[in-house]
Design a protein that fits this description.
single chain, about 270 residues, 5 helices, globular
Length: about 270
């Protein structure tokens, strides 16, 4: 392969040519990935209420840059929590309001469970033989979410339905503070974990005023790690009367927000 630049002839061998061809693909593969989904589901007799459930799932391949720890869109602050406290899986959840029996079962159409106790809760699974760093974990999450999770005590228990899958001999720790509920101070740092924050993508449709005036709000962050992968799941759930259905998540005019370029997939799911 030859190329002339300002009167000079540049010769490139096949290895160099292949490098130029493959380098963009390699950089693409090295990127983290994120998907976002907004599920809208009528609830109750006569569909008197509307459930809006936003979920953003991000993953990071730790095998690509094991020494440098290069991140593209995965929240580095959450990775540090996993590195320093070493849980296999952890979930922090803040909830205000109660799921009403008239709404039906607290789950999405695909079976995803939505039940959450009122207040703040943290549940963590530590590998067999590891010393649980519970205090460090809840203090770290408390700072990241601007919530008083550091007031949470600890109980040893069995994994909840969503946390099932822990290896035999794992230590499962759980704590809750009933008086610590979700508020606007928690929403801002939660949005900062997302690739485009609240400026683009489905999170940009969130209307905080309507969200915190609804019957139920639940906000959570769940982290898990495997041998070569970190995964973060960010969920936000609200239920409000269908008469206000135009307001939540900016549904008043359109379901097409400004696209977040960092998202691999973006979907809005509505009843058939």
């Amino acid at each position: 392969y030859q190329r002339r630049v300002r009167g000079r002839e540049i010769r490139m061998g096949m290895p160099s040519l292949l490098l130029l061809v493959l380098l963009p693909a390699a950089l693409c593969i090295a990127k983290d990935s994120c998907n976002e989904t907004l599920t809208l589901q009528p609830l109750g007799a006569g569909q008197a209420n509307l459930l809006a459930h936003l979920s953003v799932v991000c993953s990071h391949d730790t095998a690509l840059h094991p020494s440098t720890g290069i991140f593209s869109i995965f929240p580095r602050s959450l990775s540090r929590v996993m590195e320093l406290t070493a849980p296999r899986r952890v979930r922090a959840r803040l909830s205000r309001g109660r799921w009403m029996p008239a709404w039906g079962a607290p789950e999405l159409a695909d079976g995803t469970q939505l039940h959450a106790p009122m207040g703040a809760e943290v549940e963590a699974v530590f590998d067999p033989g590891d010393t649980p760093r519970w205090k460090e974990l809840v203090h770290s999450l408390s700072g990241l979410l601007c919530a008083s999770l550091n007031l949470i005590g600890v109980d040893v228990g069995t994994p909840s339905l969503e946390m099932v899958g822990a290896a035999p001999g794992s230590t499962v720790l759980y704590g809750v503070v009933a008086r610590e509920t979700v508020c606007t101070e928690n929403l801002s740092p939660w949005l900062k974990f997302l690739p485009c924050g609240g400026k683009a993508g489905l999170p940009a449709l969130i209307d905080a005023h309507t969200l915190f005036g609804s019957s139920l709000q639940t906000l959570s962050v769940e982290l898990s790690r495997s041998e070569h992968r970190l995964v973060s799941v960010h969920n936000l759930t609200t239920v409000l009367p269908s008469s206000q259905a135009k307001a939540p998540y900016g549904l008043s005019s359109s379901l097409v927000p400004v696209r977040c370029g960092a998202m691999t997939e973006s979907a809005i799911r509505t009843p058939n």
